[in-house]
Amino acid sequence: MPRLAYLGPEGTFTEEALRLLDPAAERLPCANVSAALNAARTGDADGAVVPLENSIEGAITTTLDEFAWGEPLLITAELLLPVQFSLLARPDTEIAHVKRVYTHPAAITQCRAFISRELPDAVVVAAPSTAAAAQEVSLPGSPYDAAIAARIAGEHYGLVELASDIGDRSDTVTRFVRVGRPQPLPAPTGSDRTTLVVFLADDHPGALLEMLTEFSVRGVNLTRIESRPTGDGIGRYFFHFDFEGHIADARVGEAIAGLHRVCGEVRFLGSYPRADGVTTQIRRGTSDDAFGEAAEWLARVRAGQV
Amino acid sequence: MPRLAYLGPEGTFTEEALRLLDPAAERLPCANVSAALNAARTGDADGAVVPLENSIEGAITTTLDEFAWGEPLLITAELLLPVQFSLLARPDTEIAHVKRVYTHPAAITQCRAFISRELPDAVVVAAPSTAAAAQEVSLPGSPYDAAIAARIAGEHYGLVELASDIGDRSDTVTRFVRVGRPQPLPAPTGSDRTTLVVFLADDHPGALLEMLTEFSVRGVNLTRIESRPTGDGIGRYFFHFDFEGHIADARVGEAIAGLHRVCGEVRFLGSYPRADGVTTQIRRGTSDDAFGEAAEWLARVRAGQV
Amino acid sequence: MPRLAYLGPEGTFTEEALRLLDPAAERLPCANVSAALNAARTGDADGAVVPLENSIEGAITTTLDEFAWGEPLLITAELLLPVQFSLLARPDTEIAHVKRVYTHPAAITQCRAFISRELPDAVVVAAPSTAAAAQEVSLPGSPYDAAIAARIAGEHYGLVELASDIGDRSDTVTRFVRVGRPQPLPAPTGSDRTTLVVFLADDHPGALLEMLTEFSVRGVNLTRIESRPTGDGIGRYFFHFDFEGHIADARVGEAIAGLHRVCGEVRFLGSYPRADGVTTQIRRGTSDDAFGEAAEWLARVRAGQV
Amino acid sequence: MPRLAYLGPEGTFTEEALRLLDPAAERLPCANVSAALNAARTGDADGAVVPLENSIEGAITTTLDEFAWGEPLLITAELLLPVQFSLLARPDTEIAHVKRVYTHPAAITQCRAFISRELPDAVVVAAPSTAAAAQEVSLPGSPYDAAIAARIAGEHYGLVELASDIGDRSDTVTRFVRVGRPQPLPAPTGSDRTTLVVFLADDHPGALLEMLTEFSVRGVNLTRIESRPTGDGIGRYFFHFDFEGHIADARVGEAIAGLHRVCGEVRFLGSYPRADGVTTQIRRGTSDDAFGEAAEWLARVRAGQV
To answer: What Rg value do the Cα atoms of chain B yield, rounded?
Structure first.
């Protein structure tokens, strides 16, 4: 039974993601993303589950930077979790009496309309996580009347649900990934995603276009690009890429090797099944068969057998 | 005397940026970036100063999203501000007695080495801004012993500096921009930057490559790209671009018009002098003169005068 | 009634093309392509009809080089002429007695199978044109028994047709163009072609890719590219391009102006209706309306009206 | 001692090229390029020497088409031969008496200024080759007074040189290649050229741009591109490419394999030392070492060793 670290405390959306990714795993809550990843790195845990991006908030930059700069880890699975917020309070609280609300800033942003409409006079205070807010509210002497958090957090901390699905959009999704220490990769499935970090050797005009061309010329479709500062001053960035396919695919391997040749440093973060199950469309001439046939042809031609 | 809104309270790095951008301006502190921008939009202020990105933390996503989704504003100036953190406390506090520190999470990240080395046993608590942390520490009954903030915040709230320049890197820089309601643009200087937001008409493989080609074919160099979620689900993004040159430049105007034609929506955020004063290098055949000469030639040729 | 020069003598395929392009024109046969074009340049004729390329033989390099180096001319029309060869002889000649055949080398190439099969023992001699061959054969004392030429040449010179449509392929086509001195261009029809000559400013790796990108980024499709030597040594070339659309089209104008800016010299050879009548497919965002709307938007944005 | 076929008769520029390429070879003159190549194909000769392009006239299309459509041959060497024309006549002929000149049409083009200036009243008649013209003029009863041909032809046929180096340009060069049946390739030298023929799988807008990108993304520089008709109608072409490097080079092999995958058919025509001895400049990240290192890295990463 693997032991997986996650962004705690119990009741976070990340815990929910972990339960869905591996129901049988032992769960090790950690104070923040870095701590969860470090638990996986040191062996305190067999792996970790962390959020990577949210369909409203965007990238979780702590996760991106940990993946880029920390000891190497490999992504082995991803999960898309619809994020539904509930207004949670101690039993017997009435919504009319909620004057002080505690929650994570991302939840404040995503529940703005509900707060304006239903809690126009309430003070809303920022908490380090939605589950921490629920935990705080569950304490008898808490100065807060309610928390905005996942329903699971309410169940965990003995709170009741005053209102459910209170986000401005009902289709908010967070993407979580499971990571582990370097290990054999999940086998290709035909519906895979690969994640990379790329540092430029020298930052020159057109460098990004060159990187994208390494993908496009081999029929590899990008699904996400993020730039992050290298720390060496404004205007210096490195890049996170997600794209379709598995590094075991010939076209993907050649594209990544191409980036490795022309860029400063490429860090491979994993190839793993897509959570949405979408099958990779393979452009003419870029299948493994096409690569294999071309390699045989090239060998013959190099031997002068034209 | 213009009145400029900014991310307050008094003593923030943003206030320092505002003072440098416009020493004579009246200053209107606001609770957060959105409030400062709204003050500019509604006319409560004549403009606003907000942070756009930091050389360690990356983009300030609130600013990016406000620029993309809120009522249009125009960037009219930028400033690069070295960010130096100080450890600030009430008079008579000794560093050996600092057990509880209050500051913004970004400062925690950026001062990690100092904290580990000098304050190994201290509890560090997250504050909404560095200046708010200084303000809180200045209160007689504060539960916190020290704040990490800008020196200016210490001066403002009557704190003393226990240690200065405590960031892990001494070259951390934040980029601030001054914005205002739609207005005539600053004149081109030969050392300008332009900022855009681009939404894709339809998200297809190669869309990003196409956008970059609109720039590169006309010799326009990108200096920053950020992707942000559209809110329509994981995998749907829009883009922020900074690039060299002024929209009044022929090559820049043609590139932006090209994006406007082939993308779903382009929002122009401004052309303004670069804070670093770097002169734009103009590739052969892309100067205003070259465009003007080509337009005259085209007119003659279209009239059959070959 | 215009007077048009052409590659003579009477009976050439070019004469046939001229008759189809302008049945009412007065016809001025010339000894070669250069002479025909010079007649148009000097005013001896109002224009000229010359072959540009053949679906088997490829480009007529004399025509290409005259267009590139000679006094400027404008193409105003094109014609695709199926080329059918006949075996022509003086009356009373039997095919079994044909021992010496006279024709243009291109016709030898294109009738190779017929000659091997039907005239295995004949000597085939090269003539300057197919019509000249027919003319020669028509002379009473000619050393040749038959000519391979257009049927029209046989009619003209009083020859009989021993065999018709004797080409290896029945779908051979030659493309002819009508040219004149610089003049107002034919109006756009929605099914137009444009022809250019481009000389490189400096020959560097990627120069051709850059030229093609000027077309592709604006949705202009190439239909023909030819390289020709500049005369400055092996490895130095200039280029002939045909592409879809009319220089009056906004996307075409911008692409040509772009080439003019970044290349050494661009010579415009004309925009004219396509002989095949194929309507130009216009990619999203590249119609004249899209360009007009983008120009208006750009003007507003440059005025700060965002 | 190898036996090499060439475009005869004795005294052609091709014979001169052959002597320079392989002084010891037995020489087999042939009536035309096709016959010379066929002699190599059938084994009548061990190889052939044929012209490929001329710095004034451009491509020798017969050679290009034979390479593309005929039984496969491999280019094993190239030679650049300065082409100098002489006016040759039977002994005792004076230039003032030259009224009828016989030569190849290419020579007429290239000696136009000399002919206008020195032989304004002469009739110039087209011959199948310059050497054939010299041979004809050497016959006692020849109707021609002089030939324009290589000096070597004059020596061979007993003619005297009335004028030498009479071309309009003194730097005209013809590129010859030596070909043979399929065989082991010449070893890479660091100054190599590779020649290919590429047929498109389906002719779509952007197909040429895609082909060029296969080269450029791997740092392979084109030195020549020629389009030739496929014979399937106007607007359908295939392409000849020359580019820097040897198919044994990793970057060249990968580029050619890429073309093989995405195009209809690629015919490899050979990798051989450049006649001009120019060393191939290798762009960062495209050396064999860079490819080898990237392949090792990829293998490790695919095994999960990040």
So the answer is: 23
